[in-house]
Amino acid sequence: MPSPGLLTRWSGPRFLCLLAVRVMVVAATVSKGCEAPGKPKCFRNKSSSHEYTCEWERSSSATNVTYDLLISPTEPPFDNAMSRWDLRTNRIYLDEDELIKIRNVSIVVTAHAGNASCTSNSTTVVLSTVVKLPEPVKMAALWSDHKLKLTWPSQGDSASAEVLVRHVENKTQTWSHEVKKENNVYSVLLEGLETQRAYQVQVRQRSTQVTASLWSDWSANLTVPAEILQSPDVELKTITEVDRGIRQLVFTWKAVAPAAQAGGVHYTLTYPPWCPCAVKEKARCQITVPSLHHTINVTNSAFNLSIRAENTAGASSTGYVNVAAKPDQDLKACEKNLTFHRKHVEWYEVKEGGTAKERTLRKERKKFVRYVYREYNCGHKGPKTVEMCLWYKKENVPLVEPLNFSGSKTDTTVNLSWGPIPLEARRGFISHYTLCHTKHTKPPEQEPSQEECRNLTASETTFRLENLQPDSRYNITLAGATSVGPGPRALLSTATYPSEKPPEGNLPVWISLGLLVAFFGASILCSLLVKRLKSRILPPVPKPVILSPALIRADNEELERRETLDEVSVHRPVLRGEHHWFEEPEEDVDQSETLVGTDEDQTQRGSRDSLESPGDQEEVLYRNGLVFDMKAEELRPGDQNTSTL
Fold first, then answer.
1. What pLDDT, in 10s, does the model give residues 31-59?
2. Which is nearest to 285 in space by CA: 383, 371, 379?
3. Contact in structure between 61 and 35 (CB atoms under 8 Å)
4. Pair 107, 70: CB distance under 8 Å
5. Of 342, 341, 357, 428, nearest to 393 (Cα)?
6. Is residue 174 a contact partner of residue 190, using CB atoms and an 8 Å limit?
């Protein structure tokens, strides 16, 4: 604040004299190089202030100019009422104790440039009624429901505002509004603007708590971009396994409209906390990026990202993208002595449909509920998953029995099958199944036999119960067990079949088909064997071909020319002791015409002749290896070379 110059108090007569001199000087003096200053204004910055500001316009070309500020009353009393300041600037800050506030005063400024002087026009005003608020600063704009809301810090007084709006076509609109004051903030709401266009806005204000308030100076230009109507269309571009337990995710999204980029735009990403971020469980990480892509390293856990586009006039709605957790394959139960102190850990509830995408806070973990436990640490590449297992805060016995417990029976066995207990009803890790059976004797009033039990592994869903008694009734039970104990039992009551007569229709279909195929195969095989044996044991007798007499005669003539005829004598065997003797023929046979064979031939003839009964002698003809019965067929004429035996 400039310190006041020489302050002089004047009495009434002396003031009038000086005022007359000043008026004469203003009227008569036109000094070369002196330009009169602007009309002075004195005011407070707000109605509750005790300090006044007096200012005036000065020539931009003037140099080495000094000013005299004279404030004097225009109505009595005039004693000791004049104040004067010698200044080198065009603004001065005065305390209210130095001024006359509740009466009209005249304010005049005289400029001195070298030997020349010039005086401004006077201002008459009651100082206590004049307030000039400062120009609006730190303005902000926000689109809401297709309306533009302007806000800036309050000065304490009730005020009105004037808003100047320009858009790209350089058109101008001016609104006068009563300014709303809320929590030390002024605000105005403008309607009728196009939300998809960019604007430049200026505002000035004035107090409404005094009668002679002045308009403030115009604020600096504020660029208002278009409203962002849609959320960014974000997508997961790539997933890369950079290390065991570390996945690198690359997200991309599209830019907003050009009008919404006026004044700048950025994108705010929000995601669950990880190593570089806050350690509080409810905290979420937020980063701001100016580009259209972002790369981040995450663990094998589920990851969800939200994104908003923001400019100086607001933000878009939020876009989301969810990255599923790496499949939990063949996870085992966590160790009993697992500790979580000073570790980066997460819990994800496991349901029948799969693992939940949202992690469960430490204090929200429930008893008897299965969770996937994930532990990770922070390295130079980012968070890394180092442990994954299934975990229960506390276990209990199952709530229900195994599902769909059923069986098929024979005379001595029962084939059992069942389904697993639903996950929500297990309330712990199923360590084994307990299978028991009891035989009921006849008559029914007798006590049942002792129960026999056995443990089956948790992975089994079938079992064959053997060595049962035929035609007996059994009660079979099955229960799932955790480390705490077994749960409810599933009951199956069944009776085995009698051993001597299996029930009709119970023979498997494939056995019936097999027997049928075997029967037809044996029939076909037997037929083939019978035919083959018959052909060997009883060969077929060839039927002679009966030719016509002409053909027979021609054949005989041909044969007579080619073949040599031998006469054969047939002798009847005569039994003489132990030897066979042949009788000599009664007539002598010409040795030259009779062919006497070798000893072997004679033996063969004797064998054939021995088959004939005594007294029977057949006449035969031997021709080219064939023997003809001469009794059955008389010799044809012309066969002159055939001899009768």
1. 445 788 888 889 988 888 889 989 888 87
2. 383
3. yes
4. yes
5. 428
6. no
Report the C-alpha gap between 113 and 29 in whole angstroms: 13
Dihedral over Cα of 176, 182, 184, 187: its sign: negative
User: How far apart are alpha carbons 395 and 392 in whole angstroms?
Assistant: 6
Burial grade of 281 (CB within 10 A; 0-12, 13-18, 19 or more): middle
Q: How many CB atoms lie within 10 A of CB 9?
A: 12
CA atoms of 72 and 76, how far apart (whole Å): 10
* The pLDDT of residue 298: 84
Contact 205, 136 (CB under 8 A): yes
Q: Over the range 365-384, which residues count as b (16 or more CB within 10 Å of their CB) and which as e?
A: eeebbbbbbbbbeeeeebbb
pLDDT band per the 50, 70, 90 thresholds, residue 294: very high
Pairing of strands 41-43, 51-55: antiparallel
Q: What is the mean pLDDT of residues 566-591?
A: 48
pTM across the whole model: 0.51
Q: 229: closest CA among 192, 194, 200?
A: 194
Q: The tokens 């404030």 sit on which residue?
A: 71
Contact of 247 with 300, CB cutoff 8 Å: yes
Give the three-class secondary structure for 272: coil
CB 98 within 8 A of CB 23: no
User: Residue 36 carries which DSSP code?
Assistant: P
CA distance 56 to 37: 7
How many residues appear in the chain?
Answer: 645
Which residues does 21 contact at the CB level (< 8 Å), separation at least 6? none
> H-helix or E-strand containing 478?
strand 473-481
Q: What pLDDT digit, counting tens, does each position of 109-166 carry?
A: 888 887 888 888 888 888 888 999 999 999 999 998 888 999 999 888 888 888 888 8
Residues 6+ apart with CB under 8 A from 307: 231, 232, 234, 251, 253, 267, 268, 269, 270, 318, 319, 320, 321
CB within 8 A of 63, min separation 6: which ones?
Answer: 113
